[in-house]
# Entry
Amino acid sequence: MVVAREDAGMPVRKDRFAIAWLVGNELRQARVRLGETQAGSAVKIGTSTSRMNYLETGRSVQRPDDVLALMEFYGRPRAEAEALAGLLERPNRRVWWAPWEPVIADHDRLFFGLEGFAAAEFVYFPSVVPGLLHTPAYAAALIATDQVSPLHHERIVEFRQVRQQRLLDDEGPLELSVVIDEHALRRAVGGADCLRGQLDHLLTLAARPNVTVQVMPDDVAVHDGLAGPFELLDFEAAQSIGRIEYPDGAAYVEEYHQVAGYLHRRRQLRGAALDEHTSREVITARRAALERTEQGDDHPRVARLDRRRDRSP
# Structure
Protein backbone atom coordinates (compact mmCIF):
# COMPACT_ATOMS: atom_id res chain seq x y z
CA MET A 1 0.00 0.00 0.00
CA VAL A 2 2.95 2.34 -0.56
CA VAL A 3 1.54 5.27 -2.48
CA ALA A 4 4.40 7.72 -2.46
CA ARG A 5 8.15 7.44 -2.02
CA GLU A 6 10.29 9.46 0.36
CA ASP A 7 13.24 9.26 -2.05
CA ALA A 8 11.11 11.05 -4.65
CA GLY A 9 10.61 14.00 -2.32
CA MET A 10 7.04 13.01 -1.48
CA PRO A 11 5.77 12.01 1.97
CA VAL A 12 4.60 8.43 2.52
CA ARG A 13 0.81 8.83 2.69
CA LYS A 14 0.06 6.78 5.77
CA ASP A 15 -1.97 9.00 8.12
CA ARG A 16 -2.01 7.50 11.63
CA PHE A 17 -5.15 9.41 12.64
CA ALA A 18 -7.07 8.24 9.57
CA ILE A 19 -5.81 4.69 10.12
CA ALA A 20 -6.97 4.73 13.76
CA TRP A 21 -10.41 5.96 12.62
CA LEU A 22 -10.67 3.27 9.93
CA VAL A 23 -9.53 0.44 12.23
CA GLY A 24 -11.93 1.64 14.91
CA ASN A 25 -14.83 1.70 12.48
CA GLU A 26 -13.97 -1.80 11.29
CA LEU A 27 -13.94 -3.07 14.90
CA ARG A 28 -17.30 -1.42 15.58
CA GLN A 29 -18.92 -2.82 12.43
CA ALA A 30 -17.68 -6.34 13.29
CA ARG A 31 -19.08 -6.02 16.81
CA VAL A 32 -22.44 -4.68 15.64
CA ARG A 33 -22.83 -7.48 13.08
CA LEU A 34 -22.26 -10.01 15.85
CA GLY A 35 -24.73 -8.26 18.18
CA GLU A 36 -22.09 -7.87 20.90
CA THR A 37 -21.90 -4.97 23.37
CA GLN A 38 -18.93 -2.72 24.04
CA ALA A 39 -18.91 -3.98 27.63
CA GLY A 40 -18.63 -7.61 26.54
CA SER A 41 -15.88 -6.79 24.08
CA ALA A 42 -13.99 -4.83 26.74
CA VAL A 43 -13.99 -7.86 29.04
CA LYS A 44 -12.55 -9.98 26.23
CA ILE A 45 -9.39 -7.85 25.97
CA GLY A 46 -9.25 -6.88 29.66
CA THR A 47 -10.02 -3.20 29.32
CA SER A 48 -12.72 -0.73 30.29
CA THR A 49 -15.87 0.13 28.36
CA SER A 50 -14.71 3.73 28.06
CA ARG A 51 -11.41 2.64 26.46
CA MET A 52 -13.36 0.32 24.18
CA ASN A 53 -15.34 3.34 23.01
CA TYR A 54 -12.09 5.21 22.35
CA LEU A 55 -10.75 2.28 20.35
CA GLU A 56 -13.86 2.20 18.15
CA THR A 57 -13.85 5.93 17.49
CA GLY A 58 -10.12 6.08 16.79
CA ARG A 59 -9.47 8.51 19.62
CA SER A 60 -7.11 5.96 21.13
CA VAL A 61 -4.52 4.30 18.89
CA GLN A 62 -5.23 0.58 18.83
CA ARG A 63 -2.62 -2.09 19.55
CA PRO A 64 -2.29 -4.91 17.00
CA ASP A 65 -2.80 -7.51 19.75
CA ASP A 66 -6.13 -5.90 20.74
CA VAL A 67 -7.28 -5.86 17.12
CA LEU A 68 -6.38 -9.53 16.64
CA ALA A 69 -8.13 -10.56 19.87
CA LEU A 70 -11.29 -8.60 19.11
CA MET A 71 -11.57 -9.77 15.51
CA GLU A 72 -11.16 -13.37 16.68
CA PHE A 73 -13.87 -12.78 19.30
CA TYR A 74 -16.14 -11.40 16.55
CA GLY A 75 -15.57 -14.49 14.44
CA ARG A 76 -13.73 -12.75 11.62
CA PRO A 77 -11.21 -14.73 9.51
CA ARG A 78 -7.62 -14.68 10.77
CA ALA A 79 -6.30 -13.27 7.47
CA GLU A 80 -8.80 -10.39 7.68
CA ALA A 81 -7.76 -9.67 11.27
CA GLU A 82 -4.06 -9.72 10.42
CA ALA A 83 -4.56 -7.37 7.46
CA LEU A 84 -6.43 -4.91 9.69
CA ALA A 85 -3.82 -5.10 12.45
CA GLY A 86 -1.12 -4.64 9.81
CA LEU A 87 -2.38 -1.13 9.13
CA LEU A 88 -1.12 -0.12 12.58
CA GLU A 89 2.51 -0.94 11.84
CA ARG A 90 5.09 1.86 11.65
CA PRO A 91 2.74 4.85 11.96
CA ASN A 92 4.06 8.19 10.77
CA ARG A 93 4.39 10.96 13.30
CA ARG A 94 3.29 13.60 10.81
CA VAL A 95 0.29 13.42 8.50
CA TRP A 96 1.22 13.64 4.82
CA TRP A 97 -1.01 16.66 4.17
CA ALA A 98 0.49 18.73 7.03
CA PRO A 99 2.27 21.24 4.72
CA TRP A 100 -1.15 22.27 3.33
CA GLU A 101 -3.07 22.16 6.63
CA PRO A 102 -3.92 25.91 6.65
CA VAL A 103 -5.89 25.56 3.40
CA ILE A 104 -7.66 22.26 4.18
CA ALA A 105 -11.11 22.42 5.76
CA ASP A 106 -11.57 20.47 8.99
CA HIS A 107 -14.18 18.17 7.45
CA ASP A 108 -11.82 17.26 4.58
CA ARG A 109 -8.84 16.14 6.68
CA LEU A 110 -10.13 12.68 7.50
CA PHE A 111 -11.04 12.05 3.86
CA PHE A 112 -7.62 13.09 2.54
CA GLY A 113 -5.97 10.97 5.22
CA LEU A 114 -8.01 7.94 4.13
CA GLU A 115 -7.49 8.69 0.45
CA GLY A 116 -3.74 8.64 0.98
CA PHE A 117 -3.66 4.88 1.58
CA ALA A 118 -6.89 3.75 -0.11
CA ALA A 119 -6.60 1.11 -2.82
CA ALA A 120 -9.33 2.59 -5.04
CA GLU A 121 -11.70 5.53 -5.27
CA PHE A 122 -14.98 6.14 -7.07
CA VAL A 123 -16.33 9.64 -7.69
CA TYR A 124 -19.64 10.72 -9.12
CA PHE A 125 -19.68 14.47 -9.64
CA PRO A 126 -22.21 15.72 -12.16
CA SER A 127 -21.61 19.44 -12.60
CA VAL A 128 -17.84 19.79 -13.13
CA VAL A 129 -14.76 17.60 -13.56
CA PRO A 130 -13.82 16.02 -10.18
CA GLY A 131 -10.92 17.58 -8.28
CA LEU A 132 -8.56 14.60 -8.63
CA LEU A 133 -8.54 15.17 -12.40
CA HIS A 134 -8.11 18.96 -12.47
CA THR A 135 -5.50 20.88 -14.37
CA PRO A 136 -4.03 23.80 -12.38
CA ALA A 137 -5.91 26.30 -14.58
CA TYR A 138 -9.27 24.54 -14.19
CA ALA A 139 -8.78 24.24 -10.42
CA ALA A 140 -7.84 27.92 -10.14
CA ALA A 141 -10.94 28.98 -12.09
CA LEU A 142 -13.23 27.01 -9.77
CA ILE A 143 -11.51 28.13 -6.58
CA ALA A 144 -11.95 31.76 -7.63
CA THR A 145 -15.72 31.30 -7.21
CA ASP A 146 -15.41 29.85 -3.69
CA GLN A 147 -15.45 31.88 -0.48
CA VAL A 148 -11.72 31.36 0.00
CA SER A 149 -9.10 34.00 0.67
CA PRO A 150 -7.16 34.82 -2.52
CA LEU A 151 -4.02 34.34 -0.44
CA HIS A 152 -4.82 30.61 -0.29
CA HIS A 153 -5.70 30.02 -3.95
CA GLU A 154 -2.22 29.00 -5.09
CA ARG A 155 -1.74 26.57 -2.19
CA ILE A 156 -5.13 24.93 -2.80
CA VAL A 157 -4.29 24.41 -6.47
CA GLU A 158 -0.93 22.97 -5.45
CA PHE A 159 -2.57 20.57 -3.02
CA ARG A 160 -4.92 19.25 -5.71
CA GLN A 161 -1.94 18.48 -7.90
CA VAL A 162 -0.24 16.69 -5.00
CA ARG A 163 -3.37 14.57 -4.48
CA GLN A 164 -3.39 13.76 -8.20
CA GLN A 165 0.15 12.42 -7.94
CA ARG A 166 -1.28 9.22 -6.42
CA LEU A 167 -2.67 8.40 -9.86
CA LEU A 168 0.79 8.66 -11.39
CA ASP A 169 2.84 6.70 -8.85
CA ASP A 170 4.86 3.83 -10.26
CA GLU A 171 4.19 1.68 -7.18
CA GLY A 172 0.69 1.24 -5.77
CA PRO A 173 -1.13 3.93 -7.77
CA LEU A 174 -4.67 4.77 -6.74
CA GLU A 175 -7.29 3.01 -8.87
CA LEU A 176 -9.71 5.78 -9.80
CA SER A 177 -13.12 5.45 -11.42
CA VAL A 178 -15.23 8.52 -12.14
CA VAL A 179 -18.60 9.17 -13.75
CA ILE A 180 -19.13 12.68 -15.11
CA ASP A 181 -22.34 14.05 -16.58
CA GLU A 182 -22.02 14.98 -20.24
CA HIS A 183 -23.04 18.59 -19.65
CA ALA A 184 -19.95 19.07 -17.43
CA LEU A 185 -17.85 18.67 -20.59
CA ARG A 186 -19.59 21.70 -22.09
CA ARG A 187 -19.30 23.97 -19.04
CA ALA A 188 -16.52 26.37 -20.05
CA VAL A 189 -14.93 26.78 -16.61
CA GLY A 190 -12.20 29.38 -17.02
CA GLY A 191 -13.02 29.90 -20.69
CA ALA A 192 -12.53 27.87 -23.85
CA ASP A 193 -8.73 27.57 -23.54
CA CYS A 194 -9.01 26.34 -19.97
CA LEU A 195 -11.69 23.80 -20.87
CA ARG A 196 -9.70 22.55 -23.85
CA GLY A 197 -6.69 21.98 -21.63
CA GLN A 198 -8.87 20.16 -19.09
CA LEU A 199 -10.35 17.89 -21.75
CA ASP A 200 -6.86 17.07 -23.02
CA HIS A 201 -5.82 16.23 -19.46
CA LEU A 202 -8.90 14.04 -19.00
CA LEU A 203 -7.99 12.06 -22.11
CA THR A 204 -4.38 11.68 -20.95
CA LEU A 205 -5.39 10.38 -17.53
CA ALA A 206 -8.14 8.17 -18.97
CA ALA A 207 -5.49 6.39 -21.03
CA ARG A 208 -3.79 5.18 -17.85
CA PRO A 209 -4.62 1.61 -16.79
CA ASN A 210 -5.58 2.70 -13.26
CA VAL A 211 -7.99 5.49 -14.31
CA THR A 212 -11.49 4.91 -15.69
CA VAL A 213 -13.51 7.88 -16.94
CA GLN A 214 -17.13 7.34 -17.94
CA VAL A 215 -19.57 9.93 -19.24
CA MET A 216 -23.23 9.89 -18.26
CA PRO A 217 -25.00 10.91 -21.48
CA ASP A 218 -27.65 13.62 -21.49
CA ASP A 219 -30.24 11.22 -22.88
CA VAL A 220 -30.16 9.08 -19.71
CA ALA A 221 -32.77 11.16 -17.92
CA VAL A 222 -33.15 9.08 -14.75
CA HIS A 223 -30.28 7.33 -12.98
CA ASP A 224 -28.90 6.61 -9.51
CA GLY A 225 -26.89 9.82 -9.38
CA LEU A 226 -29.88 12.16 -9.27
CA ALA A 227 -29.72 12.19 -5.46
CA GLY A 228 -26.40 14.00 -5.72
CA PRO A 229 -22.62 13.52 -5.90
CA PHE A 230 -20.73 11.09 -3.68
CA GLU A 231 -17.36 9.42 -3.27
CA LEU A 232 -16.34 5.91 -2.21
CA LEU A 233 -12.94 4.80 -0.95
CA ASP A 234 -12.02 1.11 -1.12
CA PHE A 235 -9.36 -0.46 1.12
CA GLU A 236 -7.46 -3.71 1.02
CA ALA A 237 -7.95 -4.38 4.75
CA ALA A 238 -11.29 -2.74 5.57
CA GLN A 239 -14.77 -2.11 4.20
CA SER A 240 -15.39 0.78 1.83
CA ILE A 241 -16.15 4.23 3.21
CA GLY A 242 -18.40 6.76 1.49
CA ARG A 243 -18.55 10.53 1.69
CA ILE A 244 -21.26 13.02 0.77
CA GLU A 245 -20.01 16.58 0.58
CA TYR A 246 -22.13 19.69 1.04
CA PRO A 247 -21.18 23.41 1.05
CA ASP A 248 -20.16 23.67 4.70
CA GLY A 249 -19.16 20.13 5.59
CA ALA A 250 -19.37 16.46 4.76
CA ALA A 251 -21.10 13.31 5.99
CA TYR A 252 -19.32 9.96 6.07
CA VAL A 253 -21.06 6.73 5.11
CA GLU A 254 -19.56 4.15 7.47
CA GLU A 255 -22.35 1.77 8.62
CA TYR A 256 -22.01 -1.47 6.67
CA HIS A 257 -25.64 -1.54 5.48
CA GLN A 258 -25.42 2.07 4.27
CA VAL A 259 -22.13 1.37 2.51
CA ALA A 260 -23.83 -1.53 0.71
CA GLY A 261 -26.40 0.92 -0.66
CA TYR A 262 -23.72 3.19 -2.07
CA LEU A 263 -21.84 0.26 -3.58
CA HIS A 264 -25.09 -0.58 -5.38
CA ARG A 265 -25.41 3.03 -6.59
CA ARG A 266 -21.88 2.84 -7.95
CA ARG A 267 -22.67 -0.33 -9.90
CA GLN A 268 -25.85 1.22 -11.28
CA LEU A 269 -24.14 4.45 -12.32
CA ARG A 270 -21.30 2.66 -14.05
CA GLY A 271 -23.81 0.46 -15.84
CA ALA A 272 -25.89 3.41 -17.04
CA ALA A 273 -22.91 5.53 -18.18
CA LEU A 274 -21.13 5.15 -21.50
CA ASP A 275 -18.30 2.63 -21.56
CA GLU A 276 -14.71 3.83 -21.38
CA HIS A 277 -14.05 3.77 -25.12
CA THR A 278 -17.25 5.61 -26.04
CA SER A 279 -16.67 8.11 -23.23
CA ARG A 280 -13.25 8.95 -24.66
CA GLU A 281 -14.90 9.46 -28.05
CA VAL A 282 -17.39 11.90 -26.51
CA ILE A 283 -14.61 13.85 -24.79
CA THR A 284 -12.57 13.91 -27.99
CA ALA A 285 -15.59 15.13 -29.97
CA ARG A 286 -16.19 17.91 -27.46
CA ARG A 287 -12.51 18.88 -27.71
CA ALA A 288 -12.78 19.00 -31.52
CA ALA A 289 -15.96 21.09 -31.34
CA LEU A 290 -14.12 23.69 -29.24
CA GLU A 291 -11.40 23.90 -31.87
CA ARG A 292 -13.88 24.40 -34.70
CA THR A 293 -15.80 27.02 -32.77
CA GLU A 294 -12.62 29.01 -32.17
CA GLN A 295 -11.85 28.81 -35.87
CA GLY A 296 -15.08 30.61 -36.67
CA ASP A 297 -17.55 27.79 -37.27
CA ASP A 298 -20.52 28.70 -35.08
CA HIS A 299 -22.27 25.44 -35.96
CA PRO A 300 -19.61 22.73 -35.82
CA ARG A 301 -20.69 19.44 -37.31
CA VAL A 302 -19.80 16.78 -34.78
CA ALA A 303 -20.15 13.24 -36.02
CA ARG A 304 -22.92 11.38 -34.25
CA LEU A 305 -21.43 8.70 -32.03
CA ASP A 306 -22.84 5.24 -31.65
CA ARG A 307 -23.36 5.20 -27.90
CA ARG A 308 -24.63 1.69 -27.58
CA ARG A 309 -22.70 -0.31 -25.00
CA ASP A 310 -22.88 -3.45 -27.13
CA ARG A 311 -21.78 -2.78 -30.70
CA SER A 312 -22.06 -6.36 -31.93
CA PRO A 313 -24.50 -7.01 -34.82
In short: Residues 1-11, 299-305, 308-313 have pLDDT under 50 and may be disordered. DSSP finds eleven helices and six strands in the chain. The two ends are 43 Å apart (CA to CA).
